[in-house]
Amino acid sequence: MSTCLRVATSSRTRGHVNNGWQTEKHPKPGIYFTGSRRSAYLPYNKEGKDVLKLLKKAFDQKLIFTVGTSRTTGKVTWNDIHHKTAIEGGPERYGYPDPDYLSRVREELKAKDIV
């Protein structure tokens, strides 16, 4: 979440988690994990910018990522707050169009007291 770039009609957010050791909050305390860099996309409009502010708040509170078993990597994973990692492809490919995405992600953030 350190940057937001305009990409055509969307904003791209980036998150980075450094390598480290799992804590008591993770599945295997004391075990080393490999960090990750992730990108996600939001519409470049008022609602997208509002959601970006909420996602930054969640990132600052360490709610965006966790260490766990990912379906694809077995490393750092998203933490129950869905992100669009593609501009196209629809919901089945984690992309747009997905007309309900912003309202869904707001609900996921609200469930974590991010409002």
Task: Give your account of this protein's structure.
With 115 residues, the protein is α+β, with helices and mostly antiparallel strands. The chain has one domain (4-111): 2-Layer Sandwich (Enolase-like, domain 1), CATH 3.30.390. It contains two helices and seven strands. It has helices spanning 46-60, 101-111, and strands at residues 4-7, 10-17, 20-21, 32-33, 36-43, 65-67, 76-78. It has a three-stranded antiparallel beta sheet, covered by helices on one side. Helix 1 runs parallel beside helix 2 (101-111). The longest helix is centred in the middle third of the chain and has 15 residues, at 46-60. The chain starts with a strand and ends with a helix.
Keywords:
Enolase-like, domain 1, 115 residues, two-stranded antiparallel ribbon, alpha+beta, 3-stranded antiparallel sheet
- Tell the overall outline: globular
Q: What's the CATH topology label?
A: Enolase-like, domain 1
Task: Report the uncertain regions.
Answer: 1-8
CATH architecture: 2-Layer Sandwich
Using only CA atoms, what is the Rg?
Answer: 14 Å
Ends: how far apart?
Answer: 17 Å
Strand order of the largest sheet: 1-2-5
The portion of residues forming beta strands comes to 25-35%
Give the averaged pLDDT, no decimals: 84
Number of domains: 1
In total, the number of strands is 7
N-to-C series of helices and strands: EEEEEHEEH
* Structural class designation: alpha+beta
Q: Helical percent range?
A: 10-25%
What is the level 1 CATH name? Alpha Beta
Total helix count? 2
The biggest sheet amounts to: 3 strands, antiparallel
